[in-house]
Design goal:
Length: 292
């Protein structure tokens, strides 16, 4: 096998010779739909089948193209693939939660530079999304309102933490940011799934993703190592209190320093951030979203 061989490249024999975006079955899946039935019965040393699906979403046939170099038109194709695959996975009775995400950069541990993201279909709701769902449900019960809509309303009124906005989406540095240049993108309209968006919203979402990615890589002048997580409602049940959004978690705390999750953060779940969200938002607003 050639040293620079990549299974995601056209001509590899693993993908079509010509494609724009492509859904690729993960070669090393954490979940496997053929592994057997998932059994959630508790037990100290209990094991169960890892029933589920792990997909890779290939953003581009070009091996060295950064996500920030993808035009909005390509992001729109990626979003429509997310929607199509989410709808397919929701139809499977064993699927409880669908996570769309991306890891980018060597600091994250990525060994394949080819631009790609992933989709995991879980047979359970992962712990952190479950905690978020509980908090959102409690807020709705107590305040008779959507937690996310309320946060968005206050961010728009305050303006200091807004990075960029369009007719359908707003990107801002959250008040309690866990990472120095963390950005969250909220849909202005209350929707639960990526597939609930209108064509206009899909277009605006693609523009927003393109703009944020360009800002990130222009921030320090290099590919910013980050995690992108697309948050949507669980695949089963009614969750009117949940609001579709995206989280960007960049690991860079400055041009030459990484943000490490040390003992207090890893062991306690208490994030320490030595910057103010308002300052980081101002810095990101001033960063041009031009060509990278």
């Amino acid at each position: 096998m050639p040293k620079d061989w990549c299974p995601f490249d056209p001509g590899s024999g693993r993908v079509p010779d010509h494609y724009d975006v492509y859904l690729y079955a993960n070669d090393f899946p954490a979940f496997d739909e053929e592994s057997g039935t998932f059994d959630p019965t508790p037990g100290l040393f209990k094991t169960t089948a890892a029933q589920g699906v792990c997909d890779v979403v290939l953003y581009s046939p070009e091996h060295n193209q950064n996500p920030s170099q993808l035009p909005p038109e390509r992001w729109e194709k990626i979003i429509r693939l997310w929607i199509h695959r989410t709808q397919e996975l929701i139809a499977r009775p064993e699927v409880r939660y669908i996570m769309i995400f991306e890891n980018t950069g060597e600091a994250i541990g990525v060994t394949m530079p080819h631009p790609h993201g992933q989709i995991y279909a879980f047979p359970f709701i992962p712990p952190l999304p479950d905690i978020e769902l509980e908090a959102a449900a409690e807020y709705r019960t107590t305040h008779k309102a959507c937690l996310y809509c309320t946060l968005l309303e206050k961010e728009l009124a305050d303006k200091e933490r807004i990075v960029v906005a369009n007719d359908s989406f707003v990107a801002f540095v959250p008040f309690a940011a866990r990472f120095p240049t963390e950005i969250q993108i909220y849909s202005r309209r209350h929707v639960g799934f990526v597939g609930d968006m209108t064509d206009t919203e899909i277009h605006d979402f693609a523009d927003m993703l393109s703009t944020v990615r360009k800002k990130y890589d222009n921030l320090y002048g290099f590919l910013l190592p980050l995690m992108m997580i697309v948050r949507q409602s669980p695949a089963r049940g009614d969750h009117p209190y949940f609001h579709f959004h995206v989280e960007f978690l960049p690991l860079q705390r400055s041009a030459n320093k990484l943000k490490y999750l040390a003992s207090v953060e890893t062991a306690g779940g208490t994030f320490l951030n030595d910057t103010r969200a308002e300052e980081q938002a101002a810095h990101l607003r001033a960063t041009p979203p031009g060509a990278v």
